[in-house]
Amino acid sequence: xxxxxxxxxxxxxxxxxxxxxxxxxxxxxxxxxxxxxxxxxxxxxxxxxxxxxxxxxxxxxxxxxxxxxxxxxxxxxxxxxxxxxxxxxxxxxxxxxxxxxxxxxxxxxxxxxxxxxxxxxxxxxxxxxxxxxxxxxxxxxxxxxxxxxxxxxxxxxxxxxxxxxxxxxxxxxxxxxxxxxxxxxxxxxxxxxxxxxxxxxxxxxxxxxxxxxxxxxxxxxxxxxxxxxxxxxxxxxxxxxxxxxxxxxxxxxxxxxxxxxxxxxxxxxxxxxxxxxxxxxxxxxxxxxxxxxxxxxxxxxxxxxxxxxxxxxxxxxxxxxxxxxxxxxxxxxxxxxxxxxxxxxxxxxxxxxxxxxxxxxxxxxxxxxxxxxxxxxxxxxxxxxxxxxxxx
Length: 392
Known about the structure:
It is a single chain. By secondary structure, the protein is mainly α. 73% of the residues lie in helices and 0% in strands. Helix 12 packs across helix 14 and helix 12 (260-270) packs across helix 15 (332-347). The chain is elongated and about 75 Å long.
């Protein structure tokens, strides 16, 4: 759909000619600049490019095809360095941007061409309310698109993914929409040179978000390094903490966790075995699942005490401490960590071992493992290529 809209917009604009080419070029330059400033692995949003693209869709007289064509041209040029560096899903991001801008442009430009905007909303406060309404609908459309694409890519339940998108909309998304409305109004009133002036605050915001993302990445790397202490010391097999963290996060998604809940789950899963460092003699293969229940609880409490000294949120320590409790008394994240850790301890490297481990977890749902968590784990494993035995 995004490709078809892009082709239609470019062909129509080339045939009809560009309305106010200098203004189109100025908006295109700022969209391009915003794309160049994108950070991380090339999948994070570009607030500056998004706001400028939406603002151009709300400039009177531009026309929907030209608004989309400018976004496509600037987005393609801005994607070149990201593609050259091997960053993933850059074109997916551009397709989502094209669909979002197309929605806003069609809503506004179709009414503007027919003279209905001024007739219905006027030129004062009503016009501002109309722009805000269009952008609010556009934000909801973008959230639905984002959740749909994430579900198609990961297979996770749609509801939690949509909640994540709506939560993002209430944060950075609201700033992007508000800036787009201000930019559109400023250009209409003060002319094109209002664009660079009003882009400065969002540019500073984007740089701040980029720095914050870097801090979070460093924080996650620090936790991952701390989690590897048990592997380096020979208490747990190599890669165990990372495998449990990745699988726990997937199971959490399957069960409807999102946002901060998933972050707590990932951190707790990474450090769930840290209490083993207090043991004089390592547990064979680090498999605490095979220990008596009281010994498992003792190691979990010791691990929680260590985690509390690392500066991570207290909720992470609670999950680590309670991972060995009876599952009816555990918070959801602790249930997930307990079950996924047991699966990784029992599965081994073969498909037969994985199937046998899953069957053992199903047989232990009366006392040790929550049935919903076990079945969520089974669904995640199916998507990963494992065909588990049917429930008993």
